[in-house]
Specification:
The complex is a heterodimer of chains A (about 325) and B (about 600). Chain A has about 325 residues and is an all-alpha fold. Chain A has helices at about 5-30, 45-55, 60-75, 90-120, 130-140, 145-160, 170-175, 185-190, 195-230, 235-240, 245-275, 275-280, 290-300, 300-330; strands at about 80, 85. In chain B, helix 15 (about 490-495) runs antiparallel to helix 17. Classes of the chains: A mainly alpha (about 325), B alpha+beta (about 600). Chains A and B meet through helix 2, helix 4, helix 6, helix 7 and helix 9 of A and helix 1, strand 7, strand 9, helix 8 and helix 14 of B.
């Protein structure tokens, strides 16, 4: 199947999956209790509750509420976020930028470390460098992320004073406009080198924490794929032709070993884009994960619905991109087969 | 891998490490030194004696202890909060909500609660009305507030008596259900302006009108110009601009509210009074470990503190722990005497009139392990209270009777009620994950220890679910646990929590419980309108004795105001009568 045809077919299924997901989540969210709870304050009377239900349309029958919500989504109005005290759409847009920025930098750390360690270990199978990289990558997966984050803060914040939490120095952050809400990009657009450094400075600890956790899976996948590829006949043929080992590894084995690794990276990036609750809470990162955690803990249904819709679209898109990358990396893959 | 691969790999990591170091070096510490800030010795004061609370005297000019290293962020006070406002509009904010904290700094009221305790000081009114100065009429129904001249709002507009009237009328017209508009609506018959005087006519005498109503966030004065230029006033609808922006007359003006990150306040240079010394930033820091680390790193000057992690900070260099007066929001368990037919969870075996019997209510009060709760959940920084007078409240006296654990007396009470042999199962609703859930668990253990056939199920739910259930009338559980609203005067407290026809009296059916509900109603009503404070004290103390015999709440304990801060903060003080975290930043310096 051609990529274009495949894309059209997949895009046609998109809305059906999203509508189905939204209905399931909408129904499930009502099982948890009356969604008006998030808008209530301490010790309200029944009449006051009724007024709020009317304001947010929660006094209507469930199907009416669902269609009102769905209509709102199409017009960019996803309700009022009780946890962030602003329209859900506005809150979502504000937070996507912060999460996207962190996810990209964490992905850079994870891919660099994961692919590097996997290649390094795979090329030295069962020798001490392989064992060392295994220890390093497994430690990333097994170490509780909150513990690692706190450890970094104790060393680099409290003791050395090199870094702090948060996304920025508020004074520098306020000094530039934020058209994209991706601080590094905004700093570049504003041509403000100080703001760019400030953004990078605040990104280091959270992206290392987040990226290190995702490194293990990438490294293990890369290593095992590479070991497999290095045993293939075409590698022997390349060596027989007299190609240096470095080129055999780089041009042949590693490229093919990347194919299954890309799947893991793609899905991993999808998870990073959702925002990582623990990292965002500990590093005070104003992203989606922290927003969602607040919403779940406090029962903010409008926020939960928007988030689920966002992640549904996100994963469908990431899966599609991964499939297409498959076809690019390995011409033997036939899309839609 | 060949040598060149190894070289490139090493090169990559070398460059990466170098970059990290360069960035850290370029943008790292913002520490600045403001001269000699003291020696190396830590000045840590652990709350070793909770019986001797710190004083909350008026601020003086005595410099604070600046030991504990160089002052970070000079000129800026950074407070780490654990909660974020839901609105910054006085007409929308609810009691106890984080928005009140910011409103306290940016807006002003006609009279204010002073820093040294419950006394009132002039705010935008040049005098605190009293019968003696003639600003309260002899019948106690008319209050006159002479409005301060030369006061400007942060948008440059001028304060007048008409603007004051506009502010209060706005609250009444919007009448938002989530707000405390009822504070004004329930009291005021009419308002008028006479020259530069703002005059309020009450529907009936109210001894707590100044301390509970005029000083509350909802009575803050906002800029009429700002409101009219940004959406105006619509009945029943919040003003989106005012929810996120603030235009007041206070010592601080709002610079930015970055949701999920921080709120920035700047010293208002044209403030009519003594200007504040430090700009303020309130960082949102949900995780208590991170707050504690930030305080130790010196990035935060004070942090929202609770007893669960106070031991982590004891002995930390440059950190002091302030343990002052008691808060005015005790943790309490509501007992429902108005349970609807079929309203209880299926696991419950208690009858609907379970709490009608005073022996059951006293039995719970006598069985609860107060010591375990106060020493454990409150880390020793709390105490039980008499019913229903928190420490520091008008009428409070150490000699008033309060419940202590007495298992023999509890057994006698439950035997008298007829539940001792067969036992019971009862569900208590609580908000999950905090001190309220712990209070429920202590109750469950206390009752099981008293009698293994007494089963308490603690149903811990998320905040939204709790609030939704809590607002139901009739309430569909036998009991719930949360904290009381912080009232500055016992009139509002007793009306909400003790009066048989008051807010909770009607929901919980106090008339089904009290031996003499009319007597209690008349005492609460009398104290609410009595202007003679000595007589009021007598009435509240009489009520405390009655309620000891006839309780309608179980009160596990009341917390002290608690705050960890850097020792370089000067004039640090808290007043529990101010909204949490009970701080007015304008008094601080460092």
């Amino acid at each position: 199947m051609q990529i274009r045809e495949y894309l059209i077919r997949r895009l046609m299924i998109f809305p059906l999956i999203i509508v189905g997901t939204s209905i399931i989540v909408f129904v499930l969210s009502r099982v948890g209790g009356n969604p008006v709870g998030i808008y209530l304050e301490h010790e309200m009377s029944a009449e006051e509750v009724a007024q709020l239900e009317e304001r947010y349309g929660l006094n209507e029958p469930l199907p009416v509420q669902y269609f009102a919500w769905a209509r709102g989504v199409l017009t960019g109005d996803m309700g009022w976020s009780g946890v962030s005290a602003q329209p859900v759409t506005e809150a979502l847009i504000d937070r996507i930028g912060a999460t996207l920025e962190l996810a990209i930098f964490a992905a850079i750390v994870a891919i660099t470390l994961g692919v590097g360690l996997g290649t390094f270990g795979g090329a030295r199978r069962d020798r001490w460098p392989d064992h060392m990289t295994r220890v390093l990558s497994i430690s990333g997966a097994s170490m509780p992320i909150f513990w690692f984050a706190i450890l970094l803060l104790i060393v680099f914040w409290v003791n050395l004073g090199w870094f702090s939490t948060g996304r920025s120095d508020p004074t520098i952050f306020e000094s530039i406009p934020h058209p994209t809400n991706i601080y590094t990009l905004d700093a570049i657009l504003a041509g403000n080198f100080k703001a760019l450094l400030d953004a990078l400075h605040h990104l280091i600890l959270p992206s290392v924490t987040l990226g290190f956790g995702a490194t293990a899976i990438i490294a293990r996948m890369m290593r095992s794929s590479l070991v497999e590829e290095l045993n293939e006949d075409y590698v022997d043929a390349a060596r027989a032709k007299g190609l240096p080992e470095r080129l055999v590894l780089r041009r042949h084995a590693r490229r093919n070993a990347l194919i299954p690794t890309v799947t893991v990276i793609g899905l991993g990036f999808g998870f990073l884009l959702q925002g990582t609750v623990v990292v965002e809470i500990i590093f005070r990162w104003p992203g989606l994960g922290r927003w969602m955690a607040d919403a779940v803990l406090r029962g903010d249904q409008a926020t939960i619905m928007a988030y689920v819709l966002f992640t549904s679209v996100l994963f469908l898109t990431v899966n599609l991109v991964v499939d297409i990358m498959y076809a690019y990396l390995d011409r033997r893959v036939v899309l839609g087969a | 891998m060949g040598r060149s691969d190894r070289r490139s790999s090493l090169g990559f990591w070398g460059v990466f490490t170098l970059l990290v170091v360069i960035i850290a070096a370029c943008t790292g510490s913002t520490t600045s030194t403001t001269g000699d800030t003291g020696g190396d010795t830590a000045a840590t004061t652990a709350p070793d004696d909770t019986e001797e609370p710190a004083t909350t005297d008026a601020p003086d000019d005595t410099p604070g202890d600046t030991s504990g290293g160089e002052v970070k962020n000079p000129g800026l006070y950074v407070h780490a909060a654990d909660d974020e406002p839901l609105s910054l509009d006085p007409a929308q904010v609810a009691a106890g909500e984080a928005g009140e904290t910011i409103i306290l700094q940016v807006y002003e009221r006609l009279v204010e609660i002073g820093p040294g305790g419950p006394e009132l000081i002039p705010g935008l009114s040049t005098e605190v009305p009293s019968v003696e100065n003639g600003l309260i009429s002899e019948d106690g129904l008319t209050y006159t507030f002479p409005i301060r001249e030369g006061v400007v709002f942060h948008d440059g507009s001028e304060l007048t008596a008409d603007v004051v009237k506009f502010s209060w009328d706005r609250v009444l017209e919007m009448d938002l259900p989530e707000s405390n508009a009822s504070f004004l609506a329930d009291q005021i018959e009419s308002t008028e302006v006479d020259g530069n005087n703002f005059i309020v006519h009450l529907e009936e005498r109210n001894a707590a009108f100044l301390s509970s109503v005029v000083t509350s966030a909802v009575a803050s004065i906002v800029s009429q110009q700002a409101v009219e230029e940004n959406g105006g006033v619509t009945a029943g609808q919040p003003n989106q601009f005012m929810s996120s922006n603030m235009v007041g007359t206070g010592p601080y003006r709002l610079v930015a509210w970055n949701r999920g990150e921080n709120i920035q306040l700047e010293v208002f240079e044209d403030y009519w009074g003594e200007p504040a010394k430090l700009d303020v930033r309130i960082d949102q820091v949900a995780d208590s470990d991170v707050r504690a680390l930030g305080l130790q790193a010196g990035d935060y000057d004070s942090i929202e503190t609770d007893p669960t992690f106070i031991t982590d900070l004891e002995g930390a260099e440059g950190v002091e722990i302030y343990s002052g007066d008691f808060l005015l929001e005790p943790v309490h368990m509501g007992m429902n005497m108005n349970i609807p037919e079929g309203g209880l969870p299926p696991e419950d075996t208690i009858p609907l009139d379970f709490f009608h019997d005073v022996n059951v209510r006293r039995g719970f009060n006598l069985a609860f392990d107060y010591e375990a709760f106060v020493e454990g959940a409150m880390a020793g920084l709390g105490a039980p209270i008499p019913h229903y007078l928190p420490q520091g409240m008008l009428g409070y006296d150490d000699s008033l009777p309060r419940f202590e654990r007495d298992l023999a007396a509890a057994e006698e009470a439950f035997r008298e009620a007829g539940y001792w042999d067969e036992g019971f199962t009862m569900t208590v609703l609580a908000e999950e994950g905090g001190i309220f859930e712990i209070a429920g668990l202590v109750l469950a253990d206390s009752m099981a220890e008293l009698n293994p056939n007494f089963h308490i199920r603690v149903l811990a739910v998320v905040e939204a679910q709790f609030d939704a259930a809590h607002a139901e009338d009739p309430f569909p559980y036998a009991a719930w646990i949360k904290n009381a609203d912080p009232f500055a005067d016992p009139a509002a407290l007793f009306d909400a929590y003790i009066h048989p026809d008051g807010e909770w009296g009607s929901v919980h059916g106090f008339r089904n419980a009290y031996a003499d509900p009319d007597r209690i109603a008349s005492l609460v009503d009398e104290a609410a309108v009595e202007l003679d404070q000595d007589r009021r004290v007598e009435i509240y103390q009489e009520l405390a004795h009655i309620l000891y015999q006839d309780p309608v709440w179980l009160i596990p304990g009341n917390e002290r105001a608690l705050m960890a801060h850097r020792s370089w903060v000067q004039n640090f003080q808290m007043n529990p009568l101010w909204p949490r975290p009970s701080l007015k930043f304008q008094y601080f310096d460092k």
